[in-house]
Amino acid sequence: MSLEMFQVDAFTDRAFAGNPAAVCLLPEPRDAEFLQRVALEMNLSETAFLVRRPRAEDGYDLRWFTPKVEIQLCGHATLASAHVLWESGRLAAAEPARFHTASGLLTCENKDRWIHMDFPAKPIEPAGEVPAELIAALGLEPVTVGRNVFDYLVEVASEAEVRAASPDHGLLKTVPVRGVIVTARATTAPYDIVSRFFAPGSGIDEDPVTGSAHCCLGPFWSARLGKDEILAYQASARGGSLRVRTNGDRVALIGQAVTVLRGSLLAR
User: Fold this and answer.
1) Residues 6+ away with beta carbon under 8 Å from 181
2) What is the pLDDT of residue 140?
3) Does position 1 have pLDDT exceeding 80, yes or no?
4) pLDDT digits (tens, 9 = 90+) for 215-266
5) Which of 27, 28, 26 is nearest to 38 (CA)?
6) Residue 265 in contact with residue 5, Cβ under 8 Å?
7) pLDDT at 10 over 90
């Protein structure tokens, strides 16, 4: 029996933009080795694997894999997963999507063609001693450097610096961290902030649009801008945008998605 597969562009309202994720619907759990092989075959920044729980109201178990490793939190592949469940009729449009993950229960709601995801906030703390390799690899002059459980956050002085950044990915790979967020206030309307996300240590030189990074960017910029909700643009080559609303220890990531491929995985 084949497995249903989808490819979805997340954090965009048009195809061939945003961040592509593969979504695989499994009838039963599979071992990590199989899931990792599938993710490598898909060769996207993340592949999401969904297994329905015995009681429909309990939702789905959800895991995420890059082509190299399993990760603990992923925004765009969660957005893509919820989009697939609604679009395929597995969930009614008014029914929330509930995902049980390594980062706890994540819920998504479909509101006026926007997907609202309830995620844990991952605020930064002072980074302490910053690895020299980090700054050398980025080739940027930081205004602020902080770190959370997943990533370094490097604030720079201008949007132009964010867009022009060209890291040494080989050197950045030596920094013991999931990824590095580079960010600045936006000068391009209508956005409040811009960012980019580099994660060569996780097998991804640059992620096009990173939901989990905005679990950090939301609290960071909301405090500085005095706004509960910000409009964010991730300035990768594909580009993508999302609204980020910070509420205490939770963050709402709000975006759109477009299905670009449907098919079957024949190798099981």
Assistant:
1) 151, 152, 153, 154, 195, 196, 197, 210, 213, 216, 217
2) 97
3) no
4) 999 999 999 999 999 999 999 999 999 999 999 999 999 999 999 999 999 9
5) 26
6) yes
7) yes
CA distance 48 to 65: 7
User: Per the structure block, which two tokens stand in for 181?
Assistant: 């967020």
User: CA-CA distance, 10 to 21, in Å (whole number)?
Assistant: 7
Q: What are phi and psi of 74, to 5 degrees?
A: -145, 125
CA distance 7 to 20: 7
Active site residues: 46
Report the Cα 167 to chain-centroid distance in Å. Answer: 20
* Rounded CA separation 123/28 (Å): 35
Question: Dihedral of CA 218/219/223/229: which sign?
Answer: positive
Domains delineated in the chain: 3-118+254-265 (3.10.310.10), 125-248 (3.10.310.10)
Q: Which of 100, 154, 113 is nearest to 257 (CA)?
A: 113
